[in-house]
Every structure is written in structure tokens, then in C-alpha cells.
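A student in our group prepared the protein record below, which I am reviewing. What it holds is a sequence and that sequence's fold in C-alpha cell form. My question to you is simply how this chain folds and whether the C-alpha cells agree. Do not assume that whoever made the record got everything right. I have pasted the whole thing underneath without changing anything:
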Amino acid sequence: MKKIIHTHASVLFYSLFTLIIVALLWGFHLKIRTPNLFLATMVTIVLCGYWFIFYFQILKNNRIQLLLFIVAVTSGVYGFKFHAIEDYSITNALYSTFRLFLLDVDPVFSKSASKFTTYPLAIEIARWTAAAYTISTLFSLIYLFFNQSFKLVLYRIFGNHIVISGYHHKSKVLIENLRKQQKKVVLIVEEISESQMTYMRELGVILLIGKQGSTSLYKKCKLSSAEYFIIFNEEDSKNLNEILALNEFVKETGVSLSLKQVIVHLAYHQSYELFEEIETDLSLKTNRADYLPVKPFNLQKVVAEKLFNEYPLHEGYEERLRNPNGEALHLLFIGFGQTGQHLALQAIERAHYINSAQLKITILDKYAEKVKKEWYENYPKSKRVADLTFYTIDIETDSIDDYVHAAEAAYTHIFVCLKNDFDDLKAGIQLGKTIPHLPIYLKLSEKAQISHWLHTNTEKFNKLYLFGNYEEILTYDYVVNDQLEDRAKNIHEAYRKSKEEGSKKKQGTWDQLSTFLKESNRNQLNHAEVKLMLMGLKAVPVGEIEKSGHKALTPQEYIAAAQEHLTLLGAAEHQRWNAFHFLRGWDILEEIVDGKTKDPDKRLHACLVSYDDLKKIEEITGEDYQKYDSDVVLELYQTMQMGGYRIVKEL
């Protein structure tokens, strides 16, 4: 938006400049016959012609220098040819004109060749524009050569830049989006091609090349005054190494960082587990706080969160899920790579309803045995919270239609997550024709014209939903300014203050929480919309209440609605809590000793039992654990309010 405003302002400025100069030229010509008709016409043509170049953006860079050059040459050749005291050839006129760019004027306008010679208007225009061209070109060259140094000095003084480590297709998309939003970016790479180096510099990115984790690079990129540090190499091992290198850099130099957050991309589950171990040994501090938050980031996970936020699994199945005896949702996955697995994880974490039926997932994959082994190695306890079935099928040789038709009535959602966009497209369109009544979610990671075409042909493909476009996700709002985390942070801070007021005991801040506990808070928020749906309610942003025609519930009205099904809602919340822990490798603590219900080191918790069995835990410890689940439901009104939402009844 800023760029558009800047462009229009530049066009307006140049239009006014052209209008004023042309008016002056012709005013002088008509009154005192200087400049003559030829020069006035020529300069007018040049200025108006250049206006078209400027307006239609025919030339992107150095447009002002081009204008200065054209005006200087045009008026210079004219002046030397027609205003010299003797006959001056066209070649001499050209030569003398180009000498103007060396800030010198050939003495051909008076016999005295004095410095006090009065020059014709054409030559005055030519020599001043030539001088302006020469000086601006010199400054441009100096700026080009010392550009990075100048910018880094400014970054040290003012800070607020983003440092990114790692360069590949996805980090390139992130950088492009950050620059579109006018964010200051410094890129650290070990190697990069000449063409990509040129492209990054054209984008206005400061590029530093050197060994990963190098202390000198951290100093050069002014990391101490940066706002964010994004570690986004292709390999998880490199990203984990960089976290440790950063930790060593802070220890060795004792530098005080201004970073708000370190964001590290981790693609695989094992990397997350290793990060949680590394996290306990980090001693990162900033001049803002004692704890520098390090947030793991996974692209496929964000894809899954975005999809289910836009298209909740419960849409169209509300009555079925509010019925204690209702059937479970049944998801079909065609392809089960990283994206498919993260979609399944999000679905398992969110799909907990009053019907309490276990989510069913059917997977069709060319390498079904391989992905099955990988899944259960990563999530061995997932059998306790979801019913997964794997089948081997090759879409190039086997018919999906035949298989889908055999169990069509059972499915509620279909997700197509094959290796490339073309295969996804083929399978998705074919399924859309075969079973047009079922929602089909089609992964298209690259932006393409076909995406627009499918969206515009809504009558034919009204149940085909596209997701996974990296250009929409690799942005400041999703990677850096994480709205869900901000809401979770606000809620935790309110919880912390209320606990401290009640017990006078200090509680940990959000930044002091482990990644596991932060994820737990986020997970609870992701399920908030589900709980509201089960009560026949929904959350609406404060600013949209009047437009929506809804009336916000009072706290008393909300509590009354929640109390109607509080036990069933508490049970759904407990199922969600169980699923979150089981998916992360936790298991049931069989024996409670000295009232301790959990052993974090061994990932054991006594409460990982059914909602009804929590009463047995209460008998041993004297603590009402069912109340914790009920409180989550009852406090949802305040939770939504703190997030900028109001709760209303569904129309």
C-alpha cells in the first residue's frame, strides 16, 4: 500500500513539474522570444514524452537521471549548434555537449572566452542538468558501493530489522513478502548464486555471506539491535546448530540483544523433540527481559492451522457432533507426506465433541507401509485418540474412484496431499466430479492461474477448497506476528496475575514457559471455537457485532448456556487435553506417590484417563480435576473477551 501511494505521489509531483516547466518555456517564448520555437517545442516533447515513461512505469530505475541526461543532451546540442558565435558543426556540438558532463563549457559564445560570459538559455539548461546528472550518478555509484555499510550503520542506530539465516525457495518467498511490507531485512547465507545475489540486492536486502553461526557475521548483521532473528535453513540440523551457535555467541561476547524473538523452522517431529531438550540449556537474555523467547515454527503446521481456522471440521456436521450418540467424523487422506500428517495432527487435536466418538482417519498412499511406520514412530500413542487405517494405492495405476465409492457414505472430508500440485489437481478434480457432495481439500503449494480459475468456477467445483499456498503463509503476519500466540500470551498473563493475587506466589511469565506449555495454551485456544459450537454459540470480533446483526451475550447469559451441558463439555475438553499429551508421547502414571500426579521427565501423568476416572484420582489426591476441565469452559467468555471477541448465539 505504501509503495502504491509513493508511486502515485511521484507521478503527481512529476506531472506538476512538467506543467510548470512547459508553461514557463512557452511564456518566455511568447513574451521575449527566448527560447525560440524550436527549443521550446523540443523540450516540451522531451518532457511530455518522459511523462509517459514515468506514468506507465516503462523504466523502473534511474528515471530522474534519464530525464536529466535527455534534457542536457537535447538543449546542449541545440545551444552549441545554433548559439555559437561562428558556424559550429553538429559533431562539434555533440562533443561540446558531452564535455558538459565533465562540468566544463567550451567557450564558443563570446570572443573573450571570459568566465563572466552570459550563456544562452539552452546552454544554461544543458550545463545545469548535465552537472546534476554527473553529481547524482557519482552519488548513486557511491551509494551502490557502500549501500550495505550505510544501511548497517542505520540499523545499529535505529534497529528494528529482521535477520534471516538461510536461503532457498521458501525463505526467498518469505523475504519477498517482508520487503513488500517495507520490512528491513538482512540475509545471512553460506553460499548463493550471482543472479540470486543481484536479485536480493535489488529487493533492498542486505546480504552477508559467511559460515553459519559465525560470530563475525552476527556482529556484521547488527544482531544486537535487530527485532527478530529467523533461522530458516532447509535442513533441521542446521537450524538446531544455529540455535546453539547463537547461545555460544551470547555467552562468549556478553552482548545484550534487543531481539523480541528468535524463530526457528523445524520440519520434523524428531527435531521438535530435540529442540525441547536443547531449550532447557539455553541461556539467552535480552536487554528487554531475562528470557529471550525462541519459537519453533513449522510451515506445514501453519498450513494446517490456517485451513482448519478457515474451514472448521465441524461445519455441516454440528447436530451430529452435539448428539452424545452421534457418529464420528471420518477423514480420507490421499497422500500422507508432511502436509498430510500435520493436517491429521491438527484434526486429532481439534475433533473432540459431545458425541465423544473417536475420530476416524483413512490413508491412501503409494508407500502406505512406510508412512504408517513413520507415523507410529513419531506418535506411538495416537492409537488411543484416533482410529487410523492405512491402504496402499498408486494413483497412477489404481482407481481412487472405485475405492472411494466402496466407502463413500462413511467419509465426511477428503484431503488430497500428494507430492506435487499437478497430481493433487488431477486427483481433486476427478473426485470433485465423482462425489460432488463431499468437501474436498486440495493442496496447491504454489500460486497459479488454475487456483483463480477453480475459485471462479464455484458452481462446478463448489465443494473443492484450495489450501497450502506458501505465498499466503510465509508472511510477517503468520511467521512473525503470530496472532494466536498473542492471544494465548494475553490469556496466560491474565491467568498468571489472578493466581498471584490469590496465592501471593510468583507465577512464570509467558516467555518463561517451555515450548510444550506454550503449545498447550495454543491448543486449548484452537479448540475454543469447537466448544462454542457445541453450545450453539460462536465468537465474533468486537468491530463486527453491529454489522452481523447479533447481540453479544452477557457473562450471566453465557454461564447459563454453558451450565446446560457442562459435564459433556468438560468431558470433551478432557479428551482434547488427553489427545494433546498422547500425541507428544505422554502416558498414564499408574501409581501416585506423595500426591504427585505427574512426572515430566518420564512424560507420565495420572490424569491421562477417561473423564469419569478422574474421580478416582480425586479420591487419592483430594483435588477435583474435573473442575479444571469445567473451568476451561466457564472461563471461555473471558478468554474470548481478552482476544477481542464477543460471544453471540448462532442465528
The longest helix spans residues 121-158. Residues 2-142 form one domain.
